[in-house]
Amino acid sequence: MIKVNHLKKSFGKNEVLKDINEEFSQGEVVVVIGPSGSGKSTFLRCLNLLEEPSDGEIVFEGTTLTGLNEKDLNQLRQKMGMVFQQFNLFPHKTAKQNLTIAPVKSKGVDKHQADQTAVKLLRQVGLGDKEDAYPASLSGGQQQRVAIARALAMDPDVMLFDEPTSALDPEMVGEVLKVMKDLAQSGMTMVVVTHEMGFAREVADRVLFMDDGYIVESGTPDMIFSNPQNERTQDFLSKVL
Ligand code: ADP
Ligand code: MG
């Protein structure tokens, strides 16, 4: 579904991604772990060209994204949902309106149909009773579930998550991870940057360990957590587990 060839990204003289080669298959759930500053967010943002790679290519569903014109790129981006640490909901729109704006405006979905989909998705994330609530009246966990539902409202083929639970109070982490786990079990292709090692162990098909701009190690959760081969992976895990 996504192929990454010799991806490099620098900010000025700071070479943040050094030579990334990776593939994500349809239906695969991949968790990306690694120390702060290792390039995880930059990698994720390069997948949908929120960051423009300095070199290399991203191929999504057979189309090379790097070098595409803005119009074609935006079309393909709609197939890649993204959820951030900060939920970034539209504050003056209700939960339901947050889900219908983009499908109606940028995909031309019929308003009535967008409403129906929104209600269905809010139920799916356990917020069927919050259609008309404004973000400020929702807890952090609820807001993040609305943000996930909003990304799903565009009917994406892949969902990218960048530390979706890092800004949450601890008691709200579980409800968001539960929604993500259900999504994984429904067959969604997912790339998830997280420090939630329990989620990685339980839900990931594959875990990538990033350090200093490289994917240092990749394997099943069991391989990475129980028998890491690389010294840097071992060192990182000894600090977080
Ligand atoms: P991680 O998500 O693993 O913590 P990031 O991808 O956010 O790592 O950051 C990796 C490096 O890239 C850091 O040194 C960071 O300062 C730098 N960086 C990230 N985004 C930018 C940016 N927009 N401009 C300049 N430097 C950036
Ligand atoms: Mg990050």
Structure description:
The structure is a single chain. By secondary structure, the chain is of the alpha/beta class. It has a domain at 80-155. Helices cover 39% and strands 25% of the residues. It has 9 helices and 10 strands. The chain has a 6-stranded mixed β-sheet with strand order 6-7-8-3-9-10, sandwiched between helices. Strands 2-1-4-5 form a 4-stranded antiparallel β-sheet, with helices on one face. α6 links the parallel β7 (158-162) and β8 (189-193). α3 (95-107) crosses α4 (111-124) and α4 (111-124) crosses α5 (140-152). The longest helix is centred in the C-terminal third of the chain and has 16 residues, at 170-185. It is globular. The model has no long low-confidence stretch (mean pLDDT 97). Magnesium ion binds next to α1.
Summarize the structure.
This is Polar amino acid transport system ATP-binding protein. With 241 residues, the chain is an alpha/beta fold.
Q: Count of helices?
A: 9
Strand content: 15-25%
Helix-residue proportion? 25-40%
Cα Rg = 18 Å
Distance between the termini: 31 Å
Could you tell me which ligands this complex binds, including any ions or cofactors?
A: adenosine-5'-diphosphate, magnesium ion
Arithmetic mean of pLDDT: 97
- SSE order, one letter for each helix or strand: EEEHEEHEHHHEHEHEEHH
If strands are numbered along the chain, what order do they take across the biggest sheet? 6-7-8-3-9-10
Overall SS class: alpha/beta
Anisotropy-based shape: globular
- What about the largest sheet? 6 strands, mixed
Runs in which pLDDT lies below 50 for 5 or more consecutive residues are none
Number of strands: 10
